[in-house]
Structures are given as C-alpha cells and as structure tokens.
Amino acid sequence: MIIIEILKSLFMGIVQGITEWLPISSTGHLLLFDEFIKMTVSNIAQRNEDFFNVFKVVIQLGSILAVLVLYFHKLNPFSTRKTDKEKKQTLSLWGKVLVASIPAGVIGVAFDDQIDGVLSEWYVIAATLIIYGILFIWLESRKTTPRINSFPQMNFKTAFFIGIFQMLALIPGTSRSGATILGAVFLGSSRYVAAEFSFFMAIPAMFGGSGIKLLKFALENGEKYGSQYPLLFSGIEWLVLITGFITAFIVSIAVIKLLMGYIKKHDFKVFGYYRIILGALVILYFLLFNTALK
C-alpha cells in the first residue's frame, strides 16, 4: 500500500510540476486524474478526500519554491550585485505583483467554499479548458507588436488589470498561468514578460491561498481526527506529502526553463489546441460513464 501511494504521489507531483506553469490548468488536471488515481492513505473515505485537498496545496508549494529558487536574484531587491536603480526597479516589480494579486485575493477569500464546491464539477472544467483554448488561438492570430518588453515599461494600472485576469483563474480548469499570460499579452506585454510576470504573481497567490486552505484543514480536521492523528498527518501521509512536494519542485524547475526557451521562438497556439482536445475528451468521458467529479 505504501509503495502504491508513493507512486501516486510521484505521478501527481510530475503532473503538477508540468501543468502549473504551462497554460493548461494544474488544478483541472489533478482533479481529473483523481477520478482515476484515488489516494487511499486512510481507511476513512472522508479522510482521503480531505487529505487530497491538502496534498494539492502542498505540491503547489513545491512548484512555487521552484520560482523562488530560479528567480532569486531577479526578485531580490537587496542584492549587492544590483545598482541602486536596479534595486528600485525590483521593489517596483514587487509592488506591481502585489497590486496584481488584490483581485484574486479578495474574491478567493470570499468564495473559497463555492470554488471548491460546484465550480469544481467536470462540466465547469471542460468548459473553461475549451473556452480559454479558443481564446489563446484567437489571441495568437492577431498581428500586434508588444508595447511592454520589460517590467519597467509595465505600469501599475496594467498590473492591476492582469490581476483581474488572474481572478478568473479561481475557476478550476481555467489555469492561473494561462489566464494571466493571456491577459498580459492582450494588454500589450511580450510573451516573455507575460510568462515571467505570471510566475511572480503565483508567489503571493499560491502562498496566500495555500495558507488559508492549510489553516482550514488544521482547524476542521484537528477536531475531527485529533486523537487518531496527533501530528495532523499519519506517517504514510507525511511521506506522500514530502514525495509530492519534492517531485513538483524538481519538475517545475525543468518545465519553467523549457517554457521560457520555447516562447522565445514559438507562440501559445499549441496550448490552445491541447486545451480544446482535452476539454472535448473530458466531456466525452463523463457523458459516456455518467460520473460526477468531486
């Protein structure tokens, strides 16, 4: 049982590391794969469901750690290797990231239960996969020249509107990176700036969202399973969480590097087509088998 759950964790960590940074929806993929690969770390069904919700949060933290490691110098306003001008630009970049995080932060806190509930149904995920796939293809079909080719050229107003697009990604299947990249390019950013800004926006968004979900789990499950799980998780659960976290971190580093190299020469159309095909397969599967995604 332990080996099987570890293998499931490895697989989910790989899926998370790949899909978090590509504009194809990590949450949507994880929810869909959970339909086929159920985690059974406990003999209590509700406990397994609660644990999977925490597992998704933990492996997302593994992904975001990859951004902090890869971009540590670029995001560090106190680096001795930077000039005073560069330090000010870095602080300004952080200000834009925080401004862009406001819309999703406010809505995410207010509607967390609804997002985890009805909005996580299979038909919502299928619809968002297809809709944003079409939008990516349409966006890349336009013949426009980016006006924002560096972060100093991006103003706070543009950053806030990119945050509006990130807010849309609270709906599973949308893709946080997909919505923010789509929004940034639509607002005039180059693909490279759009992708990097999307990565940086993930830091407060994912840390904030993860913190809320972990606190909620601790409060609710502390009362429910307190005597059975004095350390909040069993030994197997800790092992599964750590495995998924490390896997997502390693895979995320590789995928971010590959993506940044890819978009220097290619557009995002391929991701649009992938989303449409996946969305169609989701509809086909659930209509044929008549099951409900939880």
Describe the structure.
- The protein has 294 residues and is mainly α.
- It has one domain.
- It has helices spanning 2-19, 26-34, 45-70, 72-75, 84-110, 112-116, 122-141, 156-168, 176-186, 191-225, 235-262, 269-289.
- Helix 3 crosses helix 11 (235-262), helix 7 runs parallel beside helix 9 and helix 9 packs antiparallel against helix 10 (191-225).
- It is globular.
- The two termini are 23 Å apart.
Shape: globular
How many angstroms does the end-to-end distance come to?
Answer: 23 Å
Q: How many distinct beta strands? A: 0
- DSSP helical segment count: 12
Which parts are unreliable, with pLDDT below 50 for 5 consecutive residues or more? none
Strand portion: under 5%
Q: What fraction, in percent, of the residue positions are helical?
A: over 70%
The main sheet comes to:
none
What is the number of independent domains?
1
Order of helices and strands: HHHHHHHHHHHH
Structural class label: mainly alpha
Question: What is the radius of gyration computed over CA atoms, rounded to a whole number of angstroms?
Answer: 19 Å
User: What is the overall pLDDT average?
Assistant: 87
Key words describing this protein structure:
mainly alpha; 12 helices; 294 residues; globular
Nutshell version of this structure?
This protein is an all-alpha fold.
Helix and strand arrangement:
Elements: H1 2-19, H2 26-34, H3 45-70, H4 72-75, H5 84-110, H6 112-116, H7 122-141, H8 156-168, H9 176-186, H10 191-225, H11 235-262, H12 269-289
Helix pairs in contact: 1-2, 1-3, 1-11, 3-10, 3-11, 5-8, 5-10, 7-9, 7-12, 8-9, 9-10
